[in-house]
Every structure is written in structure tokens, then in C-alpha cells.
Amino acid sequence: MPQHVESISGCAYAVDAQDRIAAVDGGWRQFAMENDGEMLIADRVLRRSLWDYIRGIENRLIYKRVLDHVRQSGESVAFDLRCDSPTLERHLRMEVALLPENGCLFQTQLVRYEVREAVLLLSREAVRSLCSVAVCGWCMCVEVSGHWLPLPDAVQRLADHHTPVWPNLAHTICPDCFARLDALLTSSRPTWHRLDFGADLRH
Ligand SMILES: [Zn+2]
After folding, report:
1. How confident is the prediction for the chain on average, in pLDDT?
2. How many angstroms separate the alpha carbon of residue 43 from the centre of ligand 1?
């Protein structure tokens, strides 16, 4: 198993009642160091708002709803998501559980992975155009011309039009993943409707 896969096989972090990052584990530190994650190094993230690190308003709303559900029900929530690097397709399982004093614990486990040829669309080294495409952080499907395509198909389509310049990525959640998570969190629907688009989520 490649080292950078091994390091995310177990990764956890905790937030306090105000959604500030209160603790990160060794898996987090290792992952940040090995995945160009200077911004994620522990000393810099502690006491920062969780919302600084979740990209896209839709994703922030989903995570807000997950946290509300866990805090209000006391029940853990588990869901699947992706955390790809250019050369690795990573399928993760995340569980969010209640901690004392209304904190929450996020625990991520690697379910499976595949090594692949580098996908330049995901690379920090890629030359970007002024265009952008939406990418779902939960399944890595990409919206191309109004259709949500699996990553390899999307890359093929975008390569036809943009190579060697790639569009920027706008991180969001696709309709299928939203429906899946919505069903999972149905019992917190009242919270969803009450959701305040607070300043923390808006940037
Ligand atoms: Zn999706």
C-alpha cells in the first residue's frame, strides 16, 4: 500500500461546540504533510473554524446539517465520500459522533483505493483557464455541459475541449449525492429548513 494511502486509513479530528477544530490525530498530521496540505498542518488548524476548510456553500450546508443532527439526536451519522489525489482514487467512510459538551468527532476510514495515472484536472500543477466546472466531493462526478459524469468520463470530455488548459474546480454536491444524504438525514429536516445562512458558512 502506498505510504500516502496508508496514512489516511485512519484519520480523525474533533470540533468543539462552536465548530472550532479542537484536536487532530496522527493520521491527520501525516495526511496533511504528504498531500501538499501545508494549510492543514495541525498547529495552523487548531482553534480555526471547521467552515474555513469545507469548500462550497452546498457542502457547508450538508456538514452543518450533519452536525445539527448529531447534536440534537445524539446519534452518530456515517456516510461515504471521496478524497482523491491526482494519482489515487480514494473511497472513504466518515462517521460523525457526539462528544461531551456538544463537540463532535469526525472519524474517517479508507474503504478502498485505486492507483491510477495522474488526473491533471485534480492537480495543483495544472494550467487553469477562466472557466470552472462543478465537482462533487462525495462521488467525484463532474458536471459537464449540464450532465454529471464519472471523473474518467468527465476528464475525457474536458480534455477534448480544454487540453492542456483545465477548468477550475467548483466544489459542490451532485443531485444524486444530495438525495442520498438528504434521505440519511431526514429526521433533521426541520433543522434544514431553519438553517441560518450565517456568516461562517457564506465565505
Ligand atoms: Zn456526487
Report:
1. 83
2. 32
